[in-house]
Amino acid sequence: EAQVTQNPRYLITVTGKKLTVTCSQNMNHEYMSWYRQDPGLGLRQIYYSMNVEVTDKGDVPEGYKVSRKEKRNFPLILESPSPNQTSLYFCASRPPSSGANVLTFGAGSRLTVL
Amino acid sequence: AQSVTQLDSHVSVSEGTPVLLRCNYSSSYSPSLFWYVQHPNKGLQLLLKYTSAATLVKGINGFEAEFKKSETSFHLTKPSAHMSDAAEYFCVVSSMNTGFQKLVFGTGTRLLVSP
Question: What are residue A33's DSSP bridge partners?
């Protein structure tokens, strides 16, 4: 089944403790992206990647890192999490950019930073 | 720059009545527009998309949307609501000026369907 898999789905952590949210897709998509969803703000793009070793900032990149060493994986790294990073995170992927291409989303990762 | 405004944060309808979720966009270039749906505790799923072909776009589950350039709108409609339509809906825009790399999401409209 074609899908985007995120782990963990739920995580409670403490301020400053480094964590990684993994994202893996099995559709051979070049483009991958991370979003955070907050009430009343919709989804905001954190980082995206057009292909292996190519990443770029989205609208809210502060406090996050990403890497794209393999096509299928696009982990989101919080080096020193803070409470304002408490949010619902979505990873998504799609084929090379064009207006017609559609994102496939993971099921989401709910992160709480105490 | 591109932006999306969803005009209602909540819409309440009765089962069997029409649904209208409003979306206005701003884009310097010809946009691609999408509606996604998010059911509780689920990821987002594409309902429909507009990419400069027919202005009336039909999607899944009986939803459709009409692209109106003169009004910069892309409202989502359904003739008859079903209980299973209760969810949050997002209008999304992307355009060629960003190489379609950046998608801008609206803040969402929560649809409530009562029996």
Answer: A48, A92
Q: Is the pLDDT of residue B98 over 80?
A: no
Omega within 30 of 0 (cis) for the link into B79: no
Which of A41, A58, A99 has the CB atom closest to B94's CB atom? A99
Contact A97 B102 (CB under 8 A): no
Q: Which residue has 């990149």 as its token pair?
A: A61
Distance of CA A5 to the CA centre of its chain: 11
User: Helix, strand, or coil here: B47?
Assistant: strand
The region, left, alpha or beta by phi > 0 then psi within -120 to 50, assigned to residue A39 is beta
- Nearest-neighbour CA in chain B from A40: distance (Å): 6
DSSP per residue, B54-99? -SEEE-GGG-EEEEETTTTEEEEEESS--GGG-EEEEEEEEEGGGT
Structure tokens at B107: 């803040």
Tens-place pLDDT, residues B27-84? 877 888 999 999 988 889 999 999 877 889 999 999 999 999 999 999 999 999 999 9
